[in-house]
Amino acid sequence: MKILPERRPADVLHVGIRIDLVSRADDAAVVAARLASALDGVASVDVVSARRHLRAVPDPVLRIETGSRRAILLGRPLELTRLEFDLLHYLRAHPDRVFTRGALKSALWPRQDGNDRTVDVHVRKLRAKLEPHLDPITTVRGVGYRFESSAPVTLD
User: Fold this and answer.
1) What is the DSSP code (8-state) at residue 95?
2) What span, in angstroms and rounded, lies between the C-alpha atoms of 3 and 129?
3) Between the CA of residue 89 and those of 48, 64, 103, what are the distances in Å?
4) Would you say the pTM of this structure is higher than 0.90?
5) C-alpha span between 121 and 111 (Å, rounded)
6) CA 8, CA 54: separation in Å to the nearest integer?
7) What is the pairing mode between strands 98-100 and 137-140?
């Protein structure tokens, strides 16, 4: 048995209850119907549509700041050499494109002496600094390297 306070017509009580639903709009109608049933006619229930839900976008694992020439990995500055930064920036600026070792060397290295394996050494050192958190650079066997566009890396 429910005991409700005696109500006089002059007594009006306005109560607002906010329920945030992270689901379909149909679910709001179901919740409103159940709430109205639970209130057993003591109060009315109105459903007010709010703005569309915002999708949470996770912070990138790696942020490359071009102007300041910094790379931030998980909120901490990443110590990179000039060539490592240039290599990372160049590959990220051209995602999903395969570059030969020779093309990377001619685009990024100031001096063209040495062989194409110089690129391999720099990629290996760069990967060592990014792992285990991130591995955005893929080796395309017999060709060169590609930066995966799906990697959580932003270029500012």
Assistant:
1) T
2) 68
3) 47, 7, 15
4) no
5) 16
6) 44
7) unpaired
Query: Which helix (H) or strand (E) covers residue 140, if one does?
Result: strand 137-140
Give residues with Cβ within 8 angstroms of 88, minimum separation 6: 64, 71, 80, 126
Residue pair 125/85 in contact (Cβ under 8 Å)? The answer is no
Distance CA 28, CA 81 (A): 54
Q: What is the pLDDT of residue 92?
A: 93
pLDDT tens digits for range 15-41: 666 666 655 556 666 776 776 676 666
Two tokens, residue 29 = 């109608």
Cα–Cα distance between 94 and 148 in angstroms, integer? 9
CB 149 within 8 A of CB 97: no
Cα atoms found within 13 Å of the Cα of residue 76, Cβ hemisphere only: 6
